[in-house]
Amino acid sequence: MTAASAGKAANDLNPFWMPFTANRAFKAQPRLFASARDMHYFTPDGRAVLDGTAGLWCVNAGHARRPIVEAIQRQAEILDYAPTFQLGHPLAFELASRLGMLLPGDLNHVFFAGSGSEAVDTALKIALAYQSARGFENRTRLIGRQKGYHGVGFGGISVGGLENNKRGFPTLPNVDHLSHTLNLDEAAFTRGQPVWGLHLADELEALIETHGAETIAGVIVEPMSGSAGVIVPPVGYLERLREITARHGILLIFDEVITGFGRLGALTAAEALGVTPDLMTCAKGLTNGAVPMGAVGVSSAVYQAVVERAAGPGIEFFHGYTYSGHPLAAAAGLATLDVYESEGLFQRATELTPYWQDAVHSLRGLRHVIDIRDLGLVAGIELEPRPGAPGARATEVFHQAFDEGLLIRVTADVIALSPPLIISREQIDELIGRLSGIIEKTP
């Protein structure tokens, strides 16, 4: 590499095609992180930025936690990579066993992937394989939900309900969608789960009547929709979906990529809300965001049908990834679970929830604020869109927040907050107080 090319590689922002980013606008005015520790990021010039979003919903135990860092370092020296196609290594089995014991119900088998998107596509394929293994070859229809986000694979965008993610791309056939449950006329400024909206689960019965249960393989929903702007499930809604799917032999899949690992005060939203699915995807908080990893928790019935009862010898499920059960990711996952347990972070989230709820709802009455939604240590603050410029107001709040030392996330005109579970009450006050001032001065 020449000196000229080395300088270009070090300083030119253009080669990196950034994900979900207005690349031209960002590169004209970049906002960069250089390091992180506990509750803060630090910019290249050393300015602290309070993390109000756990990175991207993932750094639940805080940044650069020593036990996780050291576990990754040790593992890199022992076994940097090992394939898991017809081979294995101990940590992948150890992490799967530990997750199998922790996940609710009989979700005691785990298929590893490299991300949440991969976990979702894996879960959809498992659902199809399960129905086929039971002799129901016609059960190929998948049902998602409007405003649902299930990653960016072709399966995920097909069952997902965010139209911008689908625009310009072909999607899977035989997919239908339930209505989303967000209604500001009926349930604005609800604390926790809204009472309104249970009846929307009955749309599943209507879809079953339309298509026939004998054609439907599975239903996938986020227990709480995160990327669409924090949409909280109505009281009884998930329970109704569970009852309908079980009665008709349809698999229920929970996408817990965001809600998993303490966000709602328990290991999973399924545990926190008392509803156990047949399949569950997770990622993000699984490794505290330190090494990419996704996983699918699989019920015993599904595993037995696809694997244990497979006809003849050989591969039972033709699916997998080069990085399924990666050694460094497995080490990070085990260390992350240790931190969650030793520090009681899930219980901490539960104890902080009332204080958090009061703090975020204190923003009610600010100009532009038209709704506030919360569940566990998550909140969505919806701003009134500017006429003819949807999303512009929240984007300005996002940029101003960063410039004033605060990291938030915005989707359209919704501000999403999901801080690391180590946040203190004083930092909650700082987060909400500073955000309040920024919203107030945003035109």
TrEMBL record:
CDD domains: OAT_like. One of its GO terms (biological process) is biotin biosynthetic process. InterPro entries: Aminotrans_3, Aminotrans_3_PPA_site, PyrdxlP-dep_Trfase, PyrdxlP-dep_Trfase_major, PyrdxlP-dep_Trfase_small. It is an enzyme of class 2 (transferase). GO terms for molecular function: adenosylmethionine-8-amino-7-oxononanoate transaminase activity; beta-alanine:pyruvate transaminase activity; pyridoxal phosphate binding. Keywords: Aminotransferase, Pyridoxal phosphate, Pyruvate, Transferase. PROSITE patterns: AA_TRANSFER_CLASS_3. It comes from the Bacteria. The keyword Protein biosynthesis does not apply. Its cofactor is pyridoxal 5'-phosphate. Its EC number is 2.6.1.18. Belongs to the class-III pyridoxal-phosphate-dependent aminotransferase family. This is Omega-amino acid--pyruvate aminotransferase. It comes from Brevundimonas vancanneytii.
